[in-house]
Amino acid sequence: MATRKRAARTRTRSFRVALRRMGAKLEDWQVRPLILGAQASTSLEVGPQHLLRRICGDDPVLGKDLADADANMQSLMEMWNQLVFDHDRDRIRLSKFPRPKHPTKDQLVALATRRDEEVTWFLRGLDAAGQDPKALGPEGEHLMRGLAQGSTFLDSMRELIGAHR
Questions:
Q1: 105-117 burial by CB neighbour count: b if 16+ within 10 A, else e?
Q2: Are the C-beta atoms of residues 54 and 128 closer than 8 Å to each other?
Q3: Helix pair 28-39, 66-88: axis angle to 10 deg
Q4: Cα–Cα distance for residue pair 38/48, rounded to 1 Å
Q5: 75-84 as b/e, with b when 16 or more CB fall inside 10 Å?
Q6: Residue 86, C-beta contacts closer than 8 angstroms, at least 6 positions apart
Q7: pTM of the predicted model, to two decimals?
Q8: CA gap 99, 11 in Å, rounded
Q9: Is residue 42 a contact partner of residue 135, using CB atoms and an 8 Å limit?
Q10: Distances in Å between the alpha carbon of 11 and those of 24, 73, 153, 161?
């Protein structure tokens, strides 16, 4: 009976808790675009296991014991699969971030910074998958230009807001 309860608990471990228990160097909002970047790769061999060093550092500790590591890796796989599922249904969204009705300049700068960092983590995911952007073809090159332009826009917005504080 205790084993069933423990198994049920490990299956429902939240992604944030799993990252914390794995000693992740990244937060969940950074890991999501990292995974999305890896999934954008044309390589069929790429999986979440290829991102462990990016997520946890050079010596990843997957858990305190085999059951803990299993639950943590299961959570990582669930996130990977959820993002595939969401992508298939056009439901990919940016990370949640507080957006008050009347944001302050500092809050706008923080939001622009978050979105720019999400672009960076997406590109790091592509890199972790060993993806050469040219392998994505003309459409991929167009999308990469769009990411670069978006990042430049966010940088400019932060500078503009910061200059008027």
A1: eeebbebbebbbb
A2: yes
A3: 60
A4: 8
A5: bbebbbeebe
A6: 92, 93
A7: 0.81
A8: 32
A9: yes
A10: 19, 10, 41, 44
Q: How far apart are CA 156 and CA 150, in angstroms?
A: 10
The 3-state secondary structure of the chain reads: CHHHHHHHHHHCCCHHHHHHHCCCCCCHHHHHHHHHHHHCCCCCCCCHHHHHHHHHCCCCCCCCCHHHHHHHHHHHHHHHHHHHHHHHCCCCCCCCCCCCCCCCHHHHHHHHHHHHHHHHHHHHHHHHCCCCHHHHHHHHHHHHHHHHHHHHHHHHHHHHHHHCC
Q: Report the alpha-carbon distance of residue 84 to residue 2 in Å, rounded.
A: 33
In this structure, what token pair is assigned to residue 114? 């978050």
Read off the pLDDT of residues 50-107 as tens digits, 9 standing for 90 and up: 899 999 999 888 999 999 999 999 999 999 999 999 989 988 888 888 888 999 999 9
Cα–Cα distances in angstroms (integers) from residue 113 to residues 108, 126, 155, 158, in the given order: 8, 20, 8, 7
pLDDT for 1 beyond 60: no
pLDDT at 2 over 80: no
